[in-house]
């Protein structure tokens, strides 16, 4: 398999589980013609007849993270406004928008773009197309996972004459599909709270609608799945780049446990420390330069990266993902971003920018702001010069050369997106210690934080802090400095009680220039009205 796992997936080679599901539904509904073969000869028995077929199907499961279009999105479920802008149906763009545009870290200039108006103001409704689009996109990938898991049972592997090392590999693939499904259910739990629930045991043609699962029960399910597959996944750092291994499960558990009090009402900070330690002791190290983390050859950062969504300028061409993060920042010159120009969209509020004492990046290299022609103060929400933009995602290599797989027009990004990396794990450990978890200590927490800051200060220890400065307010600010534009900010602000409340305000929060508190209902996004109409088991989140 190539550097980017998605290269091995060709949309026209495999139409995937929606086609398979349609075949099953046709067969089950045509009661008087069950002896007829489907006219579409792409059946499950053919797709999964060989070890190579299984790997190609797994590539489609992974490809759903990064690809768009008819063959990959199940676009009949995506709101029509999103379909008109195909890049908006990419998982990462949808997810990133909900995690970042709703916070102090980002605003988007074009209020007439589908779903944008109301996100930064925290005043969205249940018919927002980005909110609904992510919900369906997550379920699309869950559907792919469920079918793969169903087709890769030991009985099915044996029935197809696959044995030995090939069968063992397929069992690892199955564990990876279970991990991806658990990850997407985590996304749904974190953002929507109490969604519909279906696994490989849910009958495709069943007349019963998927059941609603409450947040605390979904937490237990995700936890149990990750613990069950822990030893079935490849050992840390032993899988192909871009595929989940044991450390990816540990990283998701670390994040899951850090937020457990939000999801269930019961804190699990000791468990967050336990799984952070597993990763830290598995051989990962901080990559030497912070600014190498989000550039075109960041696939080389296997020292720090635990799991990535892989993008390639020639093989995963769409206007979502890191292409959006490369083009999106307002007025960043093309020779800086490594693209053919900016979209005049993304800017940061002054409250976030002010987390950095020196905004030039000469002191703390994480301060990657484009300031020329941009106002620090976001006096208007939908004006592209209001607020600094960022140069964090640059489609160039660490030597300044062109991206390895640059398309001729410089439209598309070669930058992989880190879903999990060691820097976050260090922060998880330190915060869990400060919140009272056992199995760690403040001295070690301080050492991890100062390791991040020493890297940020280019090897200089002048930015290191003392133990007296290590407190929860510092932790939230440091998570902002270290992880901004990596799609965690909304979750962090909720955990710290600062997302909807008046404890922390940023420009245009609540639709007010100075910021204002909003209703607590905005801690969860609404379920799509179309799902509520179709499935009587679902209940809308309070307030919508």
Chain-wise SSE layout:
Layout: H1 16-29, H2 44-47, H3 51-63, H4 70-73, H5 80-84, H6 91-101, E1 107-108, H7 129-151, H8 154-159, H9 164-192, E2 196-197, E3 211-212, H10 215-229, H11 246-258, H12 260-264, H13 269-280, E4 305-309, H14 321-327, H15 334-337, E5 346-347, H16 350-353, E6 369-370, E7 389-390, E8 417-421, H17 422-434, H18 442-456, H19 472-483, H20 489-495, H21 529-534
Antiparallel strand pairs: 1-5, 2-3, 4-8, 6-7
Helix pairs in contact: 3-7, 3-9, 6-7, 7-9, 9-10, 10-11, 11-13, 11-17, 13-17, 17-18, 17-19
| Relative strand content | under 5%
Distance between the termini: 46 Å
What ranges have pLDDT less than 50 throughout 5 or more consecutive residues?
1-40, 70-76
Q: Kindly state the mean pLDDT as a whole number?
A: 90
Shape: globular
Give a description of the structure:
With 544 residues, the chain is mainly alpha-helical. It folds into 2 domains: 5-268 and 523-534, Alpha Horseshoe (Serine Threonine Protein Phosphatase 5, Tetratricopeptide repeat); 321-503, Serine Threonine Protein Phosphatase 5, Tetratricopeptide repeat (Alpha Horseshoe), CATH 1.25.40. The protein is 41% helix and 4% strand. It has 21 helices and 8 strands. The strands form 4 sheets. It has a two-stranded antiparallel ribbon. Helix 6 crosses helix 7, helix 11 (246-258) runs antiparallel to helix 13 (269-280) and helix 17 (422-434) runs antiparallel to helix 18 (442-456). The protein starts with 15 loop residues before the first helix and ends in a 10-residue tail after the last helix. The model is unreliable at 1-40 and 70-76 (pLDDT under 50).
